[in-house]
Amino acid sequence: MINIPKGTKDVLPKDSYKWQYVEKIARDTANSFAVNEIRTPTFEHTEVFLRGVGETTDIVNKEMYTFMDKGDRSITLKPEGTAGVARSFVENGLYAGTLPAKLFYISPCFRYERPQAGRLREFHQFGVEVLGSTLPNSDAETIILAKTFLEKLGVKNVTLYINSIGCPECRKKYAEALKTYMSDNYDKLCDLCKDRLVKNPMRVLDCKNPECNKLTANAPSILDYICEDCKNHFESVQKLLKIAGVEFKINPNIVRGLDYYTKTVFEFVSENIGVQSTVCGGGRYDKLIAEFGGPDTPGIGFAVGIERLILMLDNLGVEIPNENKVKIYLAPMGEKESEKAFELVCELRKNGVVAETDHVGRGIKAQFKYADKIGAEFVGVIGSFELEKGVVKLKNMKDGQEMEVVFSSLVDAVKNA
């Protein structure tokens, strides 16, 4: 037997309806904010992620699935969605169209890391990217979209944390202050943070090592180093969130894990999925499009891991409706009856009713058991008597009530039941 690769997971029929529901809510929420779908390739030239994600990030250094193809080109399975969207935005000249370009995606992503609850090597993201607006109302609207999506799914007890990491000029000053502060404790840092302190000091604040967290607990705050423009932008974002009635907390240690962020960064955090508690994260990235050779175009976005989200919904006891349930199962009791059942099932399906009938020659008792297993709301029996009379003996599987329905009225009777 050949087993599934480590860090991947089959989504079986008993669970796939959950995915379909989450994806439907994602699409409906995006559409309500006038956000349109974009689909980018599963793999890109490696340079896309070196430029977009950043060479000093854990993703690029340790987690990417990179290989040489038959044309001796370096190819990478996408580890996140934003870089591919930025590449597409530039390559397809979307900057010349109507701005802001408001885009969303639902996509598989790949990272080579230790599998754990809700975190796999192949995972899926719902993401939103808004390109072409510098105004803080884009920041606020994007955050509100993420919040609306989570609320529509029934997610509770989630805290929104926001921060500003300023512009590149702000960060230069802050990086020097952070280096100075950490210099006395350099030897106590983990090996990864020692390297980060040289290449990208702010990433030290993002370390998951408890000892490093203690050392950075009283580090200088980035908010004390941001320029007047960045400060005003951040204050406006806060004001707009308050106008919208969105509660939030400021956390100066949020830096996010990718190099392209500027100004606003944010996370929705829950305690319902264990140690890895960030449900949704994102921020502004005003320099990314220029990195890909496009015009100076600001952007902001977020991404949600669908596996982790479904795990959280299960932990919260949120009942996800199964919209794929069979409405009616037709149980024939002979060959001619089976032909009629097949005809009626075809008619029901043409009219949007989820219908099923026997395909393996079960007896009537076995058919009732099968109908119960697949969750059929109604069972319609067609025996020789019913066939001759031109009716279906319809049974409601919830309350046991029975009635006869003529063949020509079956579609209306089931749809209105």
Low-confidence stretches: none
- Strand % is 15-25%
Classify the fold: give the CATH topology of the largest domain.
BirA Bifunctional Protein, domain 2
Q: How many structurally independent domains?
A: 2
* Helix segment tally: 15
Strand order across the biggest sheet?
Answer: 1-5-6-11-10-9-7-8
Shape: elongated
What top-tier CATH class of the largest domain fits best?
A: Alpha Beta
Tally the beta strands: 16
Corresponding CATH superfamily of the largest domain: Bira Bifunctional Protein, Domain 2
What structural class do helix, strand and pairing data support? alpha+beta
Q: What profile does the largest beta sheet have? A: 8 strands, mixed
How far apart, in Å, are the first and last alpha carbons?
Answer: 46 Å
Rg, alpha carbons = 27 Å
Overall residue-averaged pLDDT value: 92
Task: Summarize the amount of helix as a percent range.
Answer: 25-40%
Which CATH-level-2 architecture of the largest domain? Answer: 2-Layer Sandwich
